[in-house]
């Protein structure tokens, strides 16, 4: 079979290092402890790992049984929600992968996940009350003994109609909006016609959380029948795929299973459930003594990346559940001595350190998309700064635009990054500079990299944000 083209980004497995929390962080886990085998497995096997992760990261964990009420945006369990004073984010991913949950927390700390709905067209949906299951379907071109003058497009249209007849629960829809607690399973069908007029259909089912490795595949023993009865064969394939969706929901051992929350459970707000957003942390950045000279040469403080993501990325909403971070960043910044506009520098990332928190996804990207052996790094060379300010002052925020060249996979583009610089003294007396910025890259147009299933513009657009902590280049402690 040919795997479904999909976005599956990068990197090394993230180590479960203890990371200082931001004040007021909470990880909320909504559960129905006795609802099903999936619920029992989650309580027994996966919740303890999440509790350990929260403890390692210093994040307060709240486990909430939904029997007393549930927020409107919570339609299934188990469901993980992160919140701090900046906002609230619903986790989209397998609850059986703590590394991805860790990645979610780190990337949601400063940029809450948007509530934008994902709109898909020409698919099949199954209404489960508080949640919707959607299944986009791909039928590949007929292979094998293809009749002369065969119309592939007409064939696929006719077989989609046959699939609709075969489904018992899924119904075809022109378009549907999916919230963060709805779920998607992608169905692929691979028809083959033999010389003696038999039809063979290989089938595969993919989770929305991993579009490279199927959760179910049946190609060695395909659905078979007569070519003349091809509509009936496709209907049989539809029933087999539909049963596999039900099986994954009810019995998945890798984190795709869930329980729908009954419509009889009352709808309550987060505040009514005692889960308001935490208050903004008190305190401010330490001020610098007026006689402290501002350094001009700065280097990335690599130790700071252990507690917070310095560079994070996500596709444009509504695909921003596909998010990750860079874990290895080096570089320097030389502030212009005569004019701030003359600032130069270079920031380099190791391409095998971009991660979404899942080891197999990261490995696929290393070998199949970014080719990290041939292209071990990407870098942004700063050539100038655009700003209305002539100098940087202690404990002041200075708006700037970084101008330079960005190079990835031996292809270089011009890049302008709107940003700000702030300098301060830490509690232990160490000078620090923070570079905070945001930019976009058109990954398909520029590098031919394909994004996750969804709107074409969102697939192509990757949003980046950085909060890079730097220390004086001469600082030794």
Outline:
With 477 residues, this protein is an alpha+beta fold.
Question: Can you describe this structure?
Answer:
Helix content is 19%, strand content 36%. The protein is of the alpha+beta class and 477 residues long. Among the domains are: 134 residues, Rossmann fold (3-Layer(aba) Sandwich); 176 residues, Lipid/polyisoprenoid-binding, YceI-like (Lipocalin, Beta Barrel), CATH 2.40.128. Strand 22 and strand 23 form a beta hairpin. The longest helix has 22 residues. The chain is globular and about 85 Å long. The relative contact order is 0.15.
Tags for this entry?
alpha+beta; 477 residues; Rossmann fold; Lipocalin; single chain; 7 helices
List the helices and strands and how they pair.
Blueprint: E1 26-31, H1 37-57, E2 60-65, E3 76-77, E4 79-84, E5 87-90, H2 98-108, E6 118-127, E7 132-135, E8 137-139, E9 143-144, H3 152-166, E10 171-178, E11 183-193, E12 198-207, E13 216-226, H4 230-251, E14 259-260, E15 297-300, E16 311-315, E17 323-326, E18 329-334, E19 344-350, E20 354-355, H5 359-368, E21 377-386, E22 397-408, E23 411-425, E24 431-442, H6 443-447, H7 456-460, E25 461-472
Parallel strand pairs: 1-2, 7-11, 8-11, 9-11
Antiparallel strand pairs: 1-4, 3-14, 4-5, 6-7, 6-10, 11-12, 12-13, 15-18, 15-25, 16-17, 16-25, 17-20, 18-19, 19-21, 21-22, 22-23, 23-24, 24-25
Distance N terminus to C terminus? 55 Å
Q: Any idea of the CATH class of the domain at 297-472?
A: Mainly Beta
Give the strand content.
Answer: 35-45%
Tell me the Rg in angstroms. 25 Å
Going by CATH, the homologous superfamily of the domain at 297-472 would be: Lipid/polyisoprenoid-binding, YceI-like
Molecular shape: globular
What's the tally of helices? Answer: 7
CATH architecture of the domain at 297-472: Beta Barrel
Structural class: alpha+beta
Tell me the major beta sheet.
Answer: 8 strands, mixed
- Total number of strands: 25
Uncertain ranges: 1-21
CATH topology of the domain at 297-472: the name is: Lipocalin
